[in-house]
## 1
Amino acid sequence: MSAAPEILVPGRGSEGEALVLTAPISFWGGVDPKTGRIADVRHPQHGENLSGRVLFLPGTIGSSSASAVLLELVRNGHAPAALVLDEPDAILLLGLIVAREMGWETPMALRLGRDVFASYRGTIVNVADDGALTIAA
Amino acid sequence: MAMRIVAESARLLGAPRLIPIASAHIDGGLYHGDSGTLFAERLVEGGAQVAVRSTLNVGALDLMGCSRIRLEEPARGMARRMMEAYRKLGCEQSWTCAPYQAGHRPDQGSDVAWGESNAVVFCNSVLGARTNRYGDFLDIACAVTGRAPDYGLHRAENRRARLVFDVSGLSAPFLASEIAWPVLGSLYGREVGNAVGVVTGMPRHPGEDALKAFGAAAASSGAVGLFHIAGVTREAPDAETVLAGAAPEAVTRVSPEMIASARAGLSTAAAPKVIDAVAIGSPHLSPAEFDTLERLIAGRRLGVPIYACTGRHVLAGLEQSGRRKALEATGVVIVADTCVVVTPILPELAGGVLMTNSGKFAHYAPGNTGYSVLYGSLADCVESAVLGKPSFTDIAA
């Protein structure tokens, strides 16, 4: 299976295990900026780690510091391998825009309808340099 | 660099143009790791200065020295460097998440660029100024350029209500209680997500601190940037006006059962026998809230500490009147410039239980402090702090 999503923020191609979130998340307060672990005890994927994963996000909520948490994850090497969003999220993606300004290598952010997110659960996803998503395994 | 960040954000959002802004509130001064410090210092090195009035949200340190922050070096030094960088950029040293109670109140209808989710929602809803939910870094980039992308809540057509949240089925004593607002806000945020809604059925104006608590809870459980309350908030003289003649896309009739469930959802501690601390002041406490706190404590000695978070704009008054010392003598720990969920202040304690009257603390404390939370009214929080164990008085919804 393959999809050709719109590239929201360019970055390097990558491959990683899919992490499909089933509820929106607040990055600040919901994700540990040191490790990428989901720290929000009320979140269904609490305890999972988004570091190195192809992260499918059904939406974000809460704090306006989401961008700062993502920037920190990019800098300390615990960012997701790629971010797949249902719609552009100006707060979160700012973390990637600023990381690019700082000259740090960033994961790609892609736009894809949330209705197909579930089909990636439990797979290894390849993200090509042009943003194409392929299930590698 | 600031203009590139603003322009790139505008592209991402599909904004056709940039508009001038009247002020900014900057949420970038809180230390989450070295990356934010390096970014702020890069702006300073480039000679950037804010072009409009810019207040600062909380930092990671209590620069007033009221409370002890357990942030160790080198993080502590990086947090201080970050706060210093924002000062050099020309931002006001307000260090509060309630700038709207610290003299920063933009005019109704003016465009501003505010960060910090509770400040954004208060600015839009209660003051009637226009801002989107600005993320860290875009807020300072807008402040430096004096420009913001023209989209979302800057545009009048996006400010009308599409959903109705009807609270007329709830009892008058409940709606008049302090606890109603964080609980309603939490439920509202979950119901509406990022949509604009109007609350109907409120018999009277609940006061500014109640609206502050509602907005903060709604912006924690949802992505709320603007709410209306018919007959209360600036743009909603009545529901019809703010619905702009259209039928609502959905109507939520709030029942006492929904309130009970939302209230229960604010606690994560399962029937604890004791509590370890109380935290209040998210958003930062106003002078009126300190008055209530003093009245409830009534000079009694607390069994466990109450961490009372506030801004230096309130602290000055408390010190002049000698009230700070009196409060501290009872066991209150005043926290200024920051708060207990954004930086390590609470003692590290496995299985710790934190009681709070704040919907926002209730949302973030478990993830950020490791404490489980117990939610209650301020009166219940104070009684529980005196006793060192939970004490509840119920008000039926």
Note: Chain A has one domain: 2-135.
## 2
Amino acid sequence: MIGPNGSGKTTLIKSILGLVKPGSGQIFFSDETISQNVEYRKNIGYMPQIGRYPDNMKIGQLFKMIKNIRTEKEWDEEMYYRFKLDTILDKSMKALSGGTRQKVSAALAFLFNPDVLILDEPTAGLDPLSSEILKDKILSEKEKGKLILITSHVLSDLDDLTTDVMYLQDGKIVFNKSMDELKQETGEEKLGKVIAWMIKHGLQKQEMSY
Amino acid sequence: MFKISKYVIYDILRNKVVVAYTTFLLIVSMSLFQMEENSSKAVLSLLNIVLIVVPLVSMVFSTIHWYNSYEFIELILTQPISRKKVLWSEYTGISSSLVTAFLIGVGLPVVIYNFNSTGLALILVGSLLTLVFTSIAFLASVKSKDKARGIGTALLLWFYFALIYDGLVLTILFAFSDCPMEKITLLLSSLNPIDLGRIYRILQMDVSALMGYTGATYKDFFGSSMGLLYTLGIMVIWIAVPVLLAVRSFNKKDL
């Protein structure tokens, strides 16, 4: 899912998670409306754009608490160990850098092996090495047939991951097409080029009106 | 639900404000009992302090704690846990730690020095007021998005209940001093949990005889078991209504 700043990507994600209540309309998860029951959130791993965590908690306590609150007894701790979070368990959340916060968010999103992953700008703020680790993980989860919804402005990060592209602007879907379709339509290979082409050709009319 | 409350309580214990509150109450009650020869007099002085301090601390602490745990609440809400459950867990966590602080700080000395019906009434009133004002604070903080406004609202409500309301009641009573006002004052006192607590508590003592005819009517009513039930009932309404309204408005809120 891509789109300019303020186009409604994060709002849509927050609506899916029930953090923002839509003014009208319904959201369905596995054919069930999400306003009835919160159990559907079991199947969603969410990595927020800006992870906000209780300041006075330590990393270790945070993970312990989340595991304690959830009923699942099996955890996917691959990210936790690959990001070496186990070596900084005593660091308080308040003292973490933006990048380390992102690592915590990522580790939490994958922790319960959910069927759906919603990653809001996952690689923003991560160093190149960690960014690669995360992309590896996303690919391997994708291979397992999971639904992964990613927003990002770093289109080069999305090249190997993307199967479908949704372009949002001002809260409206401008297009929602599969990658193959887009490649055919534009004759480009790279996602960045594809989007640039689409914006140039498809959105010209809209741009003019601004 | 108690799993989440546990973390709320853990967080409260760590920031030590409640511990300081407990110590403060304990020092005040102990020194009052030590200084006064007559322990029932000490209980009366203690009542006056309790009626001011308990609502104030309950409101301000609950409001600030609510805003400080916003990140925690947001995090929990991305998990499969409903908003209702989160709010109730917060309420249970905060109110139970404040009630515990009160029971240790005031309840314990009262039980040691003045264990009788007036002492017990003080403990009951203090605990109920803690629950009531925590509940009102929750409503104030859920309704106002930013911290300054939330704390401001909580303080204004406290001013209203603890100070302004009495003035209003006195004005009304003064203006209508020619009419029989017993029933109406009873009603008016029910509209303010602090007043209700004060009247209930005072009428457990013999001083009510000094309050003339109104006092006698009150004594009749509050002295009986009906009075206890009435006080409890009104207090329960004061506890339940704000927190239920808070749940309702929290359910609709964008985070």
Note: Chain B has a mean pLDDT of 88.
